[in-house]
Specification:
alpha/beta; seven-stranded parallel beta sheet; 247 residues
């Protein structure tokens, strides 16, 4: 069983032989929920690629513990970075999509307000919904023992998504009528890959045209039609295998 992961504000400057203190909400979760005790192994990460591996040496009250650092690991940036542009699903399926994509290994998620989305983020709801997506990515990153948590960007319009696609080294729109399978697409050996996942109602023709003009052709995943909350996870897994990140 691998050691549990908790988040610290910063792991900069941490060295083997040093100590780190975990307190606040993360410390409370470690002490009062996980009930960690002296002598147990733990990993403290900043979520930006650095992890301090050590042992609990002291527990104070209900929300504070001290960790003696035995090893510090830094994850290198992947040669191929995968970003999923996720159309806003209904209900809590957006958090489900972020959770499973994070567990699978996606590097970034961009919420997209597609024209056919039933759900629309506006005003206070937009801020709350984005905060939920980001909190979900953080918790799923901890659960899956990641040292680098995916970035969850601000909600994008179709025009903004097209700009992201135009800057990518490979861009694709997942579409059931795509002529080319994503499994056979020619991928870059390094750089950025951006995938667009449409809403349950599908990507509108004008959106497909805008994305095509930006260099993103439609690709299909397989013979079955996946829900918007699962397509990004399936596509991410496929590309992680094809780019060697799961080798």
């Amino acid at each position: 069983m691998t050691a549990p992961v908790f988040v610290v504000d910063s792991a900069a400057g941490v060295r083997p032989g040093g100590t780190l203190v975990l307190d606040g909400p993360e410390g409370r979760h470690a002490v009062s929920v996980r009930r960690l005790r002296v002598g147990e192994d733990v990993v403290l990460t900043d979520g930006a690629g650095t992890g301090a591996y050590g042992t609990v040496t002291a527990v104070e009250g209900k929300d504070r513990l001290t960790v003696a650092v035995a090893e510090v690991r830094t994850e290198p940036a992947p040669p191929v970075r995968i970003t999923v542009v996720q159309a806003l699903p209904k209900g809590d399926r957006g958090e489900l999509a972020v959770e499973t994509m994070t567990e699978t290994g996606v590097d970034a998620v961009i919420p997209w307000a597609a024209s056919r989305c039933v759900t629309q983020w506006r005003g206070e709801r937009a801020a709350k919904s984005l905060a939920k997506w980001r909190a979900t990515a953080r918790e799923a990153g901890k659960q899956s023992r990641r040292l680098t948590f995916p970035e969850v960007g601000e909600a994008h319009t179709t025009k903004q998504v097209a700009e992201v696609l135009a800057a990518a080294d490979f861009a694709a729109v997942l579409h059931e009528e795509g002529a080319t399978p994503l499994a056979t697409a020619e991928l870059p050996a390094a750089g950025s890959v951006v995938l667009v996942v449409g809403p349950e109602g599908g990507v509108a023709p004008d959106e497909l045209a805008a994305f095509a003009a930006a260099g993103a052709a439609p690709y299909r995943l397989g013979p079955s039609v996946l829900r918007t909350s699962t397509a990004g996870t399936a596509a991410t897994a496929l590309l992680l295998g094809r780019t060697g990140r799961w080798s």
